[in-house]
Recover the amino acids of this structure.
């Protein structure tokens, strides 16, 4: 099955995508995860920033970082 790529001519969408890519490249480089198993066999993710949680929480953690980077005021 071939993938379908939608061509979006909305410049605001392009600008938002550019900001997401830039924020991801800058902010997420400081957040690397290391997976381990706890004593009960549950997968735990430890982030280099000190955050610890499960895989679903890791996804939310990264999402929060990108959103915070996008909402930051210029020069702040």
């Amino acid at each position: 099955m071939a993938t379908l790529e939608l061509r979006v001519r909305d410049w605001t969408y392009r600008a938002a995508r550019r900001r997401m890519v830039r924020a991801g490249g800058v902010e997420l480089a400081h957040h690397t995860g290391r997976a381990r198993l706890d004593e009960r066999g549950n997968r735990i993710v430890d982030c280099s920033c000190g955050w610890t949680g499960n895989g679903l929480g890791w996804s939310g953690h990264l999402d929060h970082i990108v959103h915070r980077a996008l909402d930051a005021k210029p020069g702040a």
Remarks:
- The mean pLDDT is 78.
- The two ends are 46 Å apart (CA to CA).
- The first strand starts at residue 33 and ends at 37.
